């Protein structure tokens, strides 16, 4: 497998260098791999995820994702629009438009007609079991349903990588299992590279590999242990 992520000596600090969020990260991730990133609050794991999604810019080092050199590339909007699907802990859906319209947003600029965008949005909603909610506003859905909409939206631009930041952090255990089932199935069936930040070691163990971050450095990288997990996944 080819590497879809290649990071060398990546550094990022804030407040004039007083806070070192990333302090020399070296990391490679293979295409189609499922990786969990864990670590305590302030360890740098979310900063690393933001770097991978070009939501922040490094101070030094190199970062290449899906063939883009993010340390040199100026058209980061194009990179995000073509390669990355984001899933956030609080889903970040726009409340005053419909569920289907939320999913269509990443498709703007992809030369699709309104009809094509709606057809794809409905297909994605059907995939996550929410086609009947297409015309509803997000605030009429449960937390788990909103997160499933966020998964559908993350797939709208046919990304090569999904970045998930605590995707089950605000959900109860039963709903979390459903969301993790969905992500696990997508990873296996679509061969999408999945990179997930989580504070929950049980969730992290579902991945092919666990990356542990502390004080802006990777201190451990090991294979996941799905069979030891307390979460039952439906294959």
Explain what this protein looks like in three dimensions.
This protein is an alpha/beta fold. About 30% of the residues lie in helices and about 25% in strands. The chain contains seven helices and ten strands. It has a six-stranded mixed sheet with strand order 6-7-8-3-9-10. It has a four-stranded antiparallel sheet with strand order 2-1-4-5, covered by helices on one side.
How does the SSE layout of this entry go?
Layout: E1 3-14, E2 19-30, E3 34-38, H1 45-52, E4 60-65, E5 68-69, H2 76-83, E6 84-87, H3 99-104, H4 114-127, H5 143-154, E7 161-165, H6 173-190, E8 193-197, H7 201-204, E9 209-214, E10 217-223
Parallel strand pairs: 3-8, 3-9, 6-7, 7-8
Antiparallel strand pairs: 1-2, 1-4, 4-5, 9-10
Helix pairs in contact: 4-5, 5-6
Which structural class matches the secondary elements? alpha/beta
Largest sheet: 6 strands, mixed
CA radius of gyration: 18 Å
Shape: globular
List unreliable stretches of 5+ residues. 225-235
Strand content bin: 25-35%
Give the distance, in angstroms, between the N- and C-terminal Cα atoms.
23 Å
- Written as H for each helix and E for each strand, in order along the chain, the element string is EEEHEEHEHHHEHEHEE
Percentage of residues assigned to helices: 25-40%
Order of the strands making up the biggest sheet:
6-7-8-3-9-10
Strand elements, count: 10
The averaged pLDDT comes out at 86
Number of helices: 7
């Amino acid at each position: 497998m080819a590497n879809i992520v290649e990071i060398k000596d990546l550094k990022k600090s804030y407040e004039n260098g007083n806070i070192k969020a990333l302090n020399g990260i070296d990391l490679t991730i293979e295409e189609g791999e499922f990786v969990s990133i864990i670590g305590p609050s302030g360890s740098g794991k979310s900063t690393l995820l933001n770097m991978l999604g070009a939501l922040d810019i490094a101070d030094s080092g190199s970062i290449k994702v899906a063939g883009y050199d993010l340390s040199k590339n100026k058209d980061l909007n194009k990179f995000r629009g073509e390669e990355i699907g984001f899933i956030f802990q609080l889903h970040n859906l726009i409340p005053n438009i419909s569920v289907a319209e939320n999913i269509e947003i990443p498709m703007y600029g992809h030369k699709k007609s309104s009809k094509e965008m709606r057809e794809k949005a409905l297909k994605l909603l059907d995939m996550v079991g929410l086609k009947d909610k297409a015309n509803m506003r997000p605030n009429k859905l449960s937390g788990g349903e909103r997160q499933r909409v966020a998964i559908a939206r993350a797939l709208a631009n046919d990304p090569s990588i999904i970045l998930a930041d605590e995707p089950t952090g605000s959900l109860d255990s039963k709903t979390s299992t459903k969301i993790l089932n969905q992500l696990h199935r997508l990873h296996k069936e679509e061969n999408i590279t999945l990179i997930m930040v989580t504070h929950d070691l049980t969730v992290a163990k579902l991945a092919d590999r666990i990356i542990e971050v502390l004080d802006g450095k990777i201190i451990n990288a090991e294979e996941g242990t799905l069979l030891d997990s307390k979460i039952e996944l439906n294959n």
